[in-house]
Specification:
six-stranded mixed sheet; five-stranded mixed sheet; D-Maltodextrin-Binding Protein, domain 2; Phosphonate ABC transporter, periplasmic substrate-binding protein; 2 domains; 45% helix; alpha/beta
Length: 262
C-alpha cells in the first residue's frame, strides 16, 4: 500500500513540479552508482530545465519490481528488463550506448574447460541477479545451448546483488565462476581483486541497456532529455564508461524476444 501511495505521489510531482524521476539499474552498489549518476542528474538538470531526480534500489530484483510498477519516468535498464517493462507499462526505448553488450564469465583460473561437463559440475557460480541480462541470462543460455550444461541444474548458484560483488566474490573464493559484462569489469575499481581474475568466456553481443520512458512523459521532455544525453560531455561519458550514445526505438530489442533465455 505504501509503495502505491509513493508511486502516485511521484506521478503527481512529475506532472505539476517539472520533476523527472530517473531510475538506474544497480549494476554496482547504490553508493558507487550514486556518485556517478548524481553528477549525470545534475548535468541533466542544467541542460533540460527539469528537476531530474536520480533513483535506484539496493538490488536488481528490487529495481525490477519498482520499474514494473511504473515508478520511473525514465529508466536506464538492461535489455531483458525493457522487454518486460514495455509489456507491463508500455515503456519505450529511445537511447542507448552505441556499443553492444557482451556477457562474461570470470574465474581465478585461466584453464576452464567448458567442454568437460564434469569439470563444471557442482561448481559455484556467482551472478548479480536472476534477471541480469548479459551477466546471468545470456551466460546461462549460451552454456546450455553450446555446451549442453545447465547451470541451474548441474551447478550451484549464488546471487550477490551487483556485478562488483560478483568480481569480489570470485576473487575471494566465494565462487568459482562469476557472471558480469565487459563494461562493468573494465570499470571495476578494486585493482587487487581485479588482477586475480581472468575473463574465461564471452557471449555473443546484443543491443545494450536502453534509456526508456514511461508513456506519461511528454514528447517535449523526452526531446530535451535526448538532446542533453547525446551532447553529454566526455568526462561524464567516461565516468559511465560509455563512449557515445545513439538514438533508437523499441524495435531494436525484438531480437531479445527471439532468444529463449528464460
Amino acid at each position: 500500500m505504501k509503495k502505491i501511495v509513493l508511486i502516485l505521489l511521484v506521478f503527481t510531482l512529475s506532472l505539476f513540479a517539472n520533476n523527472l524521476v530517473l531510475g538506474v539499474v544497480p549494476q554496482q552498489s547504490p553508493l558507487v552508482l550514486s556518485k556517478k549518476w548524481l553528477e549525470v542528474a545534475n548535468y541533466l538538470k542544467q541542460h533540460t530545465g527539469l528537476n531530474v531526480i536520480f533513483s535506484t534500489e539496493k538490488s536488481i530484483p528490487e529495481f525490477e519490481k519498482t520499474l514494473y510498477e511504473g515508478f520511473y519516468d525514465i529508466a536506464y535498464m538492461n535489455p531483458y528488463h525493457f522487454i518486460v517493462a514495455n509489456k507491463k507499462q508500455n515503456y519505450n526505448a529511445f537511447l542507448r550506448a552505441d556499443k553492444d553488450i557482451i556477457g562474461i564469465l570470470v574465474s581465478k583460473r585461466k584453464d576452464i574447460n567448458f567442454e568437460d561437463k564434469n569439470f563444471l559440475k557442482d561448481k559455484r557460480f556467482l551472478f548479480p541477479a536472476p534477471n541480469a541480462f548479459a551477466a546471468t541470462l545470456l551466460t546461462k543460455f549460451e552454456l546450455k545451448k553450446i555446451y549442453n550444461f545447465d547451470i541451474d541444474k548441474e551447478a550451484k548458484v549464488l546471487y550477490v546483488n551487483s556485478h562488483d560483488s560478483v568480481y569480489k566474490g570470485i576473487s575471494r573464493d566465494i565462487g568459482y565462476l562469476g557472471g558480469g559484462i565487459v563494461r562493468t569489469f573494465n570499470n571495476f575499481s578494486d585493482i587487487k581483486d581485479k588482477n586475480s581474475l581472468n575473463i574465461v568466456y564471452k557471449t555473443k553481443s546484443y543491443p545494450s541497456h536502453p534509456f526508456a520512458y514511461h508513456p506519461r512523459v511528454s514528447k517535449d521532455v523526452i526531446e530535451r532529455f535526448e538532446i542533453a544525453i547525446l551532447n553529454m560531455p566526455e568526462d561524464l561519458k567516461k565516468l559511465l564508461s560509455i563512449k557515445n550514445f545513439k538514438k533508437i526505438d523499441s524495435s531494436e530489442y525484438d531480437v531479445i524476444k527471439d532468444i529463449n533465455i528464460k
